[in-house]
Write a structure and sequence with these properties.
Layout (H helix, E strand, L loop, with lengths): L3 E4 L2 E4 L4 E7 L8 E7 L6 E7 L5 E3 L7 E6 L4 E6 L8 E8 L14 E2 L3 E6 L1
Amino acid sequence: QVQLVESGGGSVQAGGSLRLSCAASDSTSSTRCVAWFRQVPGKEREGVAIIHRNIRTTLYHDSVKGRFTISQDNAKNTVFLQMNSLKPEDTAMYYCAASSSPACMLFIVTRYNYWGQGTQVTVSS
């Protein structure tokens, strides 16, 4: 069982930055991808960014390209999401997720079998 623990959420003004962290209890041998999803009440969970833990390929939702960067620190089994130029529409609960699927470089919620508890990001105008 893989455990994921997010941290780094908070409240910022538009244009500000936040860095989310996702600490995983496993090594890169058991899960292939780590992703960040976000969700606002009444809407479906949407993918934000994915990183393949072994080959380091990344994928971003169009709405965050050029503003968000996903990266990892293998030594600490931690994945980061650096969020710059934040907008009010980025406000959401952000979830870290890990997938053992060979086809994990897709924003498909059901491909991800491990989830963190979420961290709230609020951006005010």
